[in-house]
Amino acid sequence: MSNTNAETLNALRTLFGVRAASRLFKRSRGRASHILEEARASYGAGWDAIRAVHALLEQAFLETPAVEIIDSPARAAPFLKARLAGIGYEIFGIVLLNAQNGFIAFEEVARGTISQTSVYPREIVKRSLAVNAAALLCAHQHPSGLPQASRADQVLTRALQQALALVDVRLIDHIVIGGDKHFSFAEAGLL
What is the DSSP annotation of the chain? Predict the structure, then answer.
């Protein structure tokens, strides 16, 4: 457990008690927005407690990541694992980058089931243009823990690459997260 996660868990213990804090932290996977939702839904915490949790966690979870330049799968994978690993349903996200591969934002663009999600290239192109991104990488996780690219993943990656090329946005990678491992389309020569 990282120092930030340990501090988060300690803050939750103070507010909700040891047993409740552990359940809350586990269900929310340490993500600030999920902690707020879980606190309100599961424990009926009042708004004062929720605001206190948010204040304690805002700096740790809502700032830009420590990695400022994302120019390789080795730099992207740890960031993406922290965002996506351990979630029980598929999430498809994009990391939007400037012309020098500097981080602009990470955005979740689709949520699915335990085995699939629907992704629309049009929406990704629209988001890229909205933030003036010059490049992006996309990622999703497999709740099964196996970081293998399916045939559908390959078809989607080609469609995204073609759609983004029409508006001069480079797709630099598609990373599949499975547990603590990853598969990179760029490293495998599929991009």
Answer: --HHHHHHHHHHHHHH-HHHHHHHHHHHTT-HHHHHHHHHHHH---HHHHHHHHHHHHHHHHSPPS--B--SHHHHHHHHHHHHTT-SS-EEEEEEE-TT-BEEEEEEEEE--SS-----HHHHHHHHHHTT-SEEEEEEE-TTS-----HHHHHHHHHHHHHHHTTT-EEEEEEEEETTEEEETTTTT--
The residues spanned by each domain of the chain are: 3-62, 73-184
Look up the pTM and report it: 0.64
- Tally Cβ neighbours within 10 Å of residue 148: 11
CATH number attached to the domain at 73-184: 3.40.140.10
The Cα 154–Cα 144 span in angstroms is 18
Summarize pLDDT for 120-164 with one digit per residue, the tens: 899 999 999 999 999 999 999 888 888 888 898 999 999 999 999
